[in-house]
Design brief:
The protein is built from 18 helices and six strands. It is mainly alpha-helical. The chain has three domains: 100 residues, Fumarase C, Chain B, domain 1 (Orthogonal Bundle), CATH 1.10.275; 247 residues, Fumarase C, Chain A, domain 2, CATH 1.20.200.10; 98 residues, Ribonucleotide Reductase Protein R1, domain 1 (Orthogonal Bundle), CATH 1.10.40. Strands 1-2 form a two-stranded antiparallel sheet. It has a two-stranded parallel ribbon with strand order 3-4.
Length: 457
């Protein structure tokens, strides 16, 4: 098949090389964006009289028909289509004749693909942001339902201090909020119109780039034609934001895998989101959490692919950049499906309140409260820390917990202990005392949840 660029070639393209270099199987995802960009481009060419009004009308009519077919999934591609740009142009010529060959006036596939990717990413950022908000709403709902449940807060995977489960869960809300903010900021650099940069140097035609930007809803236009066609940092930024988002989802899922184990038993997963073992009848596996954790690697892989792809390319455009799309598309789809699965996972978790209460009666997570008690009585914190360490050792040696100690036992360690010290061994008391801004007391968490709900409106 004849190529649009084969005028200077004596030989036709080798069939294997034609197949090897084709990207149409991947590019089809950009079909509607490519057509939308072409429609805006032709309207601009007609406006500045580069193309006659009659030709503009014919081309626009043809493109509108193709766009409708694309929206219904009816476009048919051939093995000889190099990419989505050439496929659409071929279809247009097939519909309206040779006048369709004017479609490519004053543009290159180099600035065209940059446009398609920016249009695509703009929509996907909006979709990912919606899915993040949906997951955040699930987090708020669960936090409200379990607003006063106390759990062991962990550092180094060891019991540290009691915290409200709702406070723990809202930590992930805040992580996701930053993820959403990063995407919003990323959108500023995505939403810049590249068309008009041409292949590298711009164009000699009197194009109106601002008009095209307005038609397509871009906030501004790119300023340097070489930069426009040769960089993909806006894609790298999006996938980087996605990798951070997936890291947060993976940490949440790691917690769920651990907390749903028999050793912990903090939560129970509904049967509807778990699978069993083909060999061991008793198994109930947290597959959703494990898969999200595993799929995080795919987004990291996409980021590394893109960094490696771009790291040593000379300016300006190089065909290597054709390989940016598989990594981008996979990252987008992986993030979206994991956000959906994450929401479904959290919706089907039941908190084991009795188990948490029982655990908190048999640990030393209120030790810091006892040290702070002594500080309020006038003892230096380092001295209080050491003394309470001795109390913990006494408990371990005598197979006791802090809540088992009597006032007399406390007083045997220091005369600063009064009769009210026993109250400070209560996890609920510990939580209630953490009233510093950002702390885990109930009042703070309720305020945090209300602020979170307002931020999603």
């Amino acid at each position: 098949m004849k190529k649009s660029w084969d005028g200077r070639f004596r030989k036709t393209l080798n069939p294997f090389i034609e197949e090897f270099s084709s990207s149409i199987d991947i590019d089809v995802k950009l079909a509607e964006y490519d057509i939308q960009g072409s429609i805006a481009h032709i309207k601009m060419l007609g406006k500045v009289n580069v193309i006659s009004k009659n030709d503009t009308k014919k081309i626009l009519h043809g493109l509108e028909e193709i766009l409708q077919e694309a929206s219904k999934g009816k476009l048919k591609y051939t093995s000889t289509d190099e990419d989505i740009h050439m496929a659409i142009e071929r279809m247009l010529v097939g519909k309206i004749g040779k006048v369709g060959n004017k479609l490519h006036t004053a543009r290159s596939r180099n600035d065209q693909i940059a446009l398609d990717e920016r249009l695509y990413l703009r929509d996907e950022i909006a979709e990912v942001s919606k899915l993040i908000k949906k997951l955040q709403r699930v987090i708020i709902s669960i936090a409200q339902k379990n607003i006063d449940v106390v759990m062991p807060g962990l550092t180094h995977m060891q019991h540290a201090q009691p915290v409200l489960f709702s406070h723990y869960l809202m930590a992930y809300f805040n992580m996701l909020d930053r993820d959403r903010a990063r995407l919003k900021d990323c959108l500023k650099r995505v939403n810049i119109m590249p068309l008009g940069a041409g292949a590298i140097a711009g164009t000699s035609f009197p194009v109106d780039r601002e008009y095209v930007a307005k038609l397509l809803g871009f906030s501004t236009i790119t300023e340097n034609s070489i930069d426009t066609v040769s960089d993909r940092d806006f894609i790298l930024e999006f996938v980087s934001c996605s990798a951070i988002l997936m890291m947060h989802l993976s940490r949440l899922c790691e917690d769920i895998v651990i907390y749903s184990s028999e050793e912990f038993g903090y939560v129970e997963l509904d049967d509807s989101i778990c699978t069993g073992s083909s060999m061991m009848p008793q198994k109930k596996n947290p597959d959703v959490a494990e898969l999200i954790r595993g799929k995080t690697a795919r987004v990291y892989g996409s980021l590394m692919t893109l960094f490696t792809l771009m790291k040593a390319l000379p300016l300006s455009y190089n065909r290597d950049m054709q390989e940016d799309k598989p990594a981008l598309f996979d990252a987008v789809e992986t993030v979206k499906i994991c956000l959906k699965a994450g929401a479904k996972l959290l919706e089907n978790i039941k908190l084991n309140r009795k188990r948490l209460e029982n655990i908190l009666t048999k640990d030393f997570s209120c030790a810091t409260e006892i040290a702070d008690y002594l500080v309020r009585q006038g003892m230096a914190f380092r001295d209080a820390h050491k003394l309470v360490g001795r109390i913990v050792r006494y408990c371990i040696d005598n197979k006791k917990h802090l809540r088992d100690l009597t006032c007399s036992e406390f007083k045997s360690f220091s005369s600063l202990f009064l009769n009210d010290v026993v109250a400070f061994t209560s996890p609920n008391s510990s939580v209630k005392s953490k009233s510093s801004p950002g702390g885990t007391c109930l009042k703070n968490v309720k305020a945090q949840i209300e602020k979170a709900k307002n931020s999603l409106k």
